[in-house]
Amino acid sequence: MSSPTPIRQADVAAKEEPETPSGFVTPAPASPGHVSPDTGSRPSPAPAKKPGKARSRWLRLTSRAPEVQSSGLDELTAKRRAHLWVDNISKSFDGFKALNNLTLILDEGELRCIIGPNGAGKTTLMDCITGKTRPDTGNVYLIGKDRERISLIEHVEHEVAQMGIGRKFQRPTVFHDHSVFENLELAFGTERGVLNAIWGKPKAKQAEKIEEILTTIGLIDRRKDRAGLLSHGQKQWLEIGMLLAQDPRILLVDEPVAGMTHQETERTAELLKGLAGKHTVVVVEHDMDFVRSIATFVTVLHEGSVLAEGSMDQVQRDPKVIEVYLGE
Length: 328
Known about the structure:
The strands form 5 sheets. The chain has a 6-stranded mixed β-sheet with strand order 12-13-14-9-15-16, with helices on both faces. α5 (180-188) crosses α7, α5 runs parallel beside α8 and α7 packs across α8 (232-244). The chain has helices at 53-62, 71-76, 122-130, 157-162, 180-188, 194-199, 204-217, 232-244, 262-275, 288-294, 312-317, 319-326; strands spanning 8-9, 14-15, 26-27, 35-36, 40-41, 66-67, 82-93, 96-107, 111-115, 137-143, 149-151, 165-168, 250-254, 280-284, 297-302, 305-310. The longest helix is centred in the middle third of the chain and has 14 residues, at 204-217. The protein has 2 domains: 8-163, no CATH class; 166-295, P-loop containing nucleotide triphosphate hydrolases (Rossmann fold). The chain starts with 7 loop residues before the first strand and ends with a helix. Mean pLDDT is 80; it is low at 1-46 and 62-71. It is an alpha/beta fold.
């Protein structure tokens, strides 16, 4: 499938301040009123309401990217709320084809599990979505609320993150010498600076949001404890909380229950199911029991392509899946 031809540049009336990791944009002041020969002077219009942080990030980044018009997505997503469109991407490394004409559509608010044997292309797919790797052919589009389509491969990794795609790798990366609360505060810290995030007091609204995240991830009673004292599973939850602090639209979670106890695995299943709806959640996982406990829709990858999709029961009964992956 050939890439759609850009038809216009998005027109965003915003004045950029010096760029920060949060991508915050201050709206430009309203233009002054003009003098009319008939009515005399006209008062200046009221300043436009400042957009929220997530919307500001979207406006600033998409102002540099053409809006894409394509009938392909409409044909594939009739009566669906598409949120992300991976459009026929391929990627090779030294002659090895990691992705082979792969097409994938994620709906807004869904919880999607992606499974497949080693070498199936799961990690490369996540890399292409997040801007870490650029596909050789094809494209990846983020779908806005008004159905605008923005090519993610035109953006570098940190810009894709600012547009609302958060990724959690298998090994948790938290600040061990700081408290659980401070770790979450640091995730917010781009507006206040790192030093203020460590030694200053959080704003009331931010502190309220941190308490909400602590409740969501089940660490409200550990807020003052050093992150290094948490169990492996609790560190995983903390890192998910740090992603939530950045207000992501899409969460990509890589093997979240590897190394967890049975109790931690059950709690993680509850956490991820609770996040779906508010966020689009994508889970890459090898633990089939865990996938069965959370999956409503499963995508099976094999040799860089989609082998099968459907409910867990459907893919388990698929002869091709049984042969190449489940081995049952």
